[in-house]
Design brief:
Length: 346
């Protein structure tokens, strides 16, 4: 099977991109896989992947971009063209009539009011059940995001990593439990809500990530007088190791598709508290969920997660995540969608 994946972003390193890197690299172990992606992602793919650099920073209306895509796809002659998210789906749908016969798959990664562009595909993959709304039932398939299971740190490694962090943030009390948030410091992640919720929670908050709201959030911490309990760790390449130090992992987002942070937390046997965003509500118990934008509700969810009994509630989810939310499982389910489409045309 010759597969062509299309990633239409140009510099982001969020869940969409990580999903694509994982899927493409795993799929290339079994099949001929090509990827059209921005040159900045060239080093994210293994040697089995045929990488084709395309400047997706250009507008989806750019005639030169559309012309380049048409020529590349017709040159590669794939059996399947798989567009990851909206921009890629729209670009391929525009040029499809100029392509040699293909089967076209789209993936919905986030909340969109208009799903018509995705439904133009022969099959549509949604990364959570909530994202299937508005897509014809005969086309849609739910495939959860998966990640590679992280190797566990030794107790010595954990102590060293924790010590390094506390040397950087000497004002934090080392005896307090650690609530951890991992994500971009952008409006959609609503870290401001999390800071509100943490006002009366007796724990440290480690915020892993960076973004345009960092200064505003640092100011909010000072205004709330909780600077002795909050550390801004910035962007870290070892976020998956850091998550192993957390007592509770928190999501305060206003919107999500299917957050990889949740997958990584559950695979690391970490309890969670979250707002009721897509994907999360399909996994976490109600006790550990808060309405979107509800600071008091999120505070109660965090307090519940900090309780020692929470681990028992999450134990079945830890096992399920290790079995179902893996790159291998995600890839095999995606290949089944491809194979079903190809069998229909024979």
């Amino acid at each position: 099977m010759r597969v062509l994946q299309v990633l239409g972003t140009s510099g982001g390193m969020g869940g969409l991109e990580q999903h694509t890197f994982n899927l493409v690299n795993e799929m290339a172990l079994q099949h001929e896989v090509h990827i059209l992606a921005h040159p900045c992602y060239a080093d994210k793919f293994n040697k089995n992947v045929d990488f084709h650099a395309v400047d997706f920073a250009r507008s989806r209306w750019n005639i030169f971009l559309l012309w380049q895509l048409k020529n590349l796809i017709n040159q590669i002659q794939p059996d399947i063209v798989h567009a990851q998210a909206g921009k890629a789906a729209e670009l391929i749908s525009r040029i499809r009539s100029y392509l040699k016969p293909i089967k076209f798959v789209t993936t919905v990664h986030g909340t969109k009011k208009n799903k018509a562009i995705y439904a133009s595909g022969d099959a549509v993959i949604a990364v959570s059940q909530a994202l299937t709304e508005g897509i014809p039932v005969n086309k849609v398939h739910v495939i959860y995001n998966g990640v590679h299971i992280q190797e566990k740190l030794s107790e010595t490694q954990k102590l060293q990593l924790k010590s390094d962090i506390y040397q950087q943030f000497s004002g934090l009390d080392r005896t307090k439990k650690i609530v951890m948030c991992i994500g971009r410091l952008e409006p959609v992640k609503n870290i401001s809500l999390l800071l509100e919720a943490m006002q009366s929670v007796d724990a440290n908050l480690w915020i892993v990530g960076d973004g345009s709201l960092r200064k505003d959030l640092e100011t909010q911490v000072i205004q709330q007088k909780i600077q002795n309990r909050v550390g801004f760790l910035g962007f870290r390449t070892d976020a998956r190791e850091l998550i192993q130090l957390a007592d509770v992992v928190v999501l305060s987002s206003d919107r999500e598709g299917f957050p990889l942070v949740m997958v990584e937390a559950l695979q690391a046997d970490k309890v969670m508290a979250s707002t009721k965003v897509n994907g999360v509500v399909e996994w976490l118990p109600e006790t550990y969920l808060a309405n979107i934008g509800d600071a008091q509700g999120l505070q109660q969810a965090i307090q519940a997660a900090l309780n020692e009994t929470a681990f028992d509630d999450f134990q079945p989810l830890f096992a399920r995540a290790k079995a179902e939310l893996t790159v291998t499982a995600m890839t095999q389910q995606t290949l089944k969608v491809y194979q079903h489409l190809l069998s229909e045309s024979t």
